[in-house]
Amino acid sequence: MNALNKSVQQVTDLIAHSDLEGDIVVRKLLEITTTRRSLDLSDLSAEDQADLMLRRSQELQPSAESLAERIRTAKQKSRPFIAKFGIDPTGAEVHLGHAVPMIILSRFQRMGHRVVFIVGDITAKIGDPTGRSNERPPLSDEDIAQNLSTYREQVTPFFDFDRAEFRYNGDWLREIKLPRLIEITAQIPMSMPLQRDDFRKRLNSGQGLTLSEVLYSVVMALDSVEINCDIEIGGIDQFLNMQMCRKVMDICGQIPELVLATPLIEGTDGTGAKMSKSKGNYVPLTAAPGEIFGKVMSIPDHLMQPYFEALTEWQDVELDIINKRLSNGSLRPVDLKKILAGEVTAAIHGLEAAMSARDEFAAKFSRRTYGEIENLPYIADIEQSVLDVIKVLQFAKSNSDVRRLAEQQGVKILFVLDEQQEHVSISPAEIWNSIGDIVRRNVNATVRGMQVYLKVGRKLARVDFSSIKFDAD
């Protein structure tokens, strides 16, 4: 069994049978998954590497089979397999949306391949025209230099730069001569850049379109030629730009790179718009741990699955277990979201900072007690078995449903006193015991002000604690 499969087995055992609400279990879980971000993946076969990449890509061109073959060929020829990611310093902050392809790139690095991170100090002067509705004022050298000053520091959580290259495309693009540029562009039909929807819309609406914007993807492609790239990683909005890279590499007599395009994650507002600085719905990598945790907690529930897929190292089998627990009520969405927020925070600031942010969030937003919840069902006959009470309350449909919830630690007795809460998970063997017996085993005597509840998945009922008789009574 390889290292990744061992890690996945640890997580599946934990999330299938544990209460994911408490800090102790969550810390153990985050320790495993955070360590996975630096896990050596070089023991994976070429096919397994390609499959792992395919599962988190929106487009992989030409195919996963082509990727596996290219990895094998590089190994046979004892040459590095080169993976490229580029970013233009058009702003001072890198955000989680940028991190999606960088997380993929980090996996290539951990597979033992050469990662080249290219900062576009020259292409930033043009500005990527993707998705823009009009021309953008050009950036000055001072603007670019200022934006560049912290880029490497911001992306360091995702890379080991002792084993990766961090390069500026100005180092070679400043040396390109006009005859060479003409030679390349003469072999590119104008229809190729003009197939872009954003260009056509601007032209049809009378908006400006500069020649430099049309040339942007050609200039970007020269980066791939410079490093003789095997695969380029970028967001799906970069797909046409990366297609131009393949074309230009072919013109220059190189084997065209493969293209891996990642999904664009929605912004934290959940409106369907992609995460972007201009819309203010982004999470900057420079943010403090508490801010990152809080911003992730603010996302609507339907974004948890795509965020887990794009921003964590969780595998499909693990997400399947989580989704089943959400469906059967043994896991609350808010508890899963806290795990997601911890994952993202730990990736940037480390595990301890993530756990501290989790504590701060709980202190700030989780002060409401169960006693403040109105219209809870009431359990007066505390000598009934837990199983019978659950079925009477219609918290579960059958004995097997109750057993399954108990196996997943989804059946609990809660003890609340002065906003302090303790809980006892009821095992499958204990569901035949009475609620009174379980309470008596965990509480020595009547405690003034204590409230007791039966919690089944996300459903809650109040227990008549005052009616329970203790030996000392």
**Mean pLDDT across all amino acids:** 86
Assembly of the depicted chains: single chain
Q: Note the overall shape.
A: elongated
Tally of helical segments: 21
Largest sheet: 6 strands, mixed
Low-confidence residue ranges: none
Percent of sequence in beta strands: 5-15%
> Helical proportion?
40-55%
Strand order in the sheet with the most strands = 1-6-5-2-3-4
User: How many beta-strand runs?
Assistant: 11
**CA radius of gyration:** 28 Å
Name the structural class.
alpha/beta
What is the straight-line distance between the termini? 58 Å
How would you explain this protein's 3D organization?
With 473 residues, this protein is of the alpha/beta class. It is built from 21 helices and eleven strands. It has helices at 3-17, 23-36, 46-54, 64-76, 96-110, 123-126, 141-148, 151-155, 170-173, 178-185, 197-204, 211-227, 239-251, 289-297, 304-311, 316-328, 333-349, 351-365, 386-392, 399-407, 435-442; strands spanning 59-61, 82-87, 114-119, 164-168, 231-235, 258-262, 378-379, 411-417, 420-425, 451-456, 459-463.
